[in-house]
């Protein structure tokens, strides 16, 4: 009899441990109530948007950063020999932000150097705008996601306090736990989305700055070429 009771207790303990181990993220979300589920859904949408923008911009910037190390030497050779059309074709084939600036400068050859410099600067601003397209959205998501998560925390705590206030001495642990689930899961989800978006934003900024520096270097080299004595 005692052996049977011990076996039953062991089975009950094993079932309890098993239930604890199988507590999934899905169950945490579903136990968080409607408020928590809405907040989590919003955060999932924000994470999807952030990932899409990151990978779209990452490949665009990666493509823009590919430049031929011999590009400026070829431009120098064409411009020195007066082959401006060949230089423009070379820029079109390179199809990079730096080559677009050089092409703009070549099209202004014959005008005052200040006008050429202004044209290159204006073209540079346009290229930078193209590179930074939608990147600011990542910064917005990085800041907004944790706040949305904290909003879920406040909602969850309100639900929990409301249940305690209306319990009349009989606290419903199930309803109380729903509020606490909402509070905890939304906070964690908001922080995760915010951290991921923040890292993605800073990575894109670093890569964009690298392309901008290359553009500036090529522009300065091109202007120096025009200043060289014939």
From TrEMBL:
Q: Which UniProt keywords apply?
A: Cell membrane, Membrane, Protein transport, Transmembrane, Transmembrane helix, Transport
Q: Taxonomically, which superkingdom?
A: Bacteria
Q: Where does the record say this protein resides? A: Cell membrane; Membrane
In this chain the MotA/TolQ/ExbB proton channel domain maps to: 94-216
Q: How does this protein lie in the membrane? A: Multi-pass membrane protein
GO process terms (BP): protein import
Family designation: Belongs to the exbB/tolQ family.
Q: Mind telling me what this protein is named?
A: Biopolymer transport protein ExbB
Name the species this protein comes from: Lutibacter oceani
């Amino acid at each position: 009899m005692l052996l049977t009771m011990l076996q039953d207790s062991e089975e009950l303990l094993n079932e309890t441990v098993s239930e604890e181990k199988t507590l999934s993220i899905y169950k945490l979300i579903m136990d968080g109530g409607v408020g928590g589920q809405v907040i989590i859904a919003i955060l999932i949408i924000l994470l999807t948007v952030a990932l899409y923008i990151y990978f779209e911009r990452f490949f665009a910037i990666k493509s823009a950063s590919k430049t031929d190390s011999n590009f400026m030497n070829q431009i120098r050779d064409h411009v020195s020999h007066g082959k401006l059309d060949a230089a423009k074709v070379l820029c079109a084939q390179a199809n990079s932000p730096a080559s677009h600036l050089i092409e703009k400068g070549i099209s202004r050859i014959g005008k005052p150097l200040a006008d050429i410099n202004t044209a290159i600067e204006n073209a540079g601003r346009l290229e930078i705008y193209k590179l930074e397209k939608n990147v600011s959205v990542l910064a917005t998501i990085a800041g907004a996601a944790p706040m949305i998560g904290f909003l879920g925390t406040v909602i969850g705590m309100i639900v929990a306090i409301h249940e305690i206030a209306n319990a009349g001495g009989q606290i419903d642990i199930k309803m109380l736990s729903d509020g606490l689930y909402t509070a905890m899961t939304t906070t964690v989800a908001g922080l995760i989305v915010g951290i991921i978006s923040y890292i993605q934003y800073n990575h894109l900024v670093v890569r964009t700055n690298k392309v901008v520096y290359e553009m500036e270097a090529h522009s300065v080299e091109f202007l120096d070429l025009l200043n060289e004595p014939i």
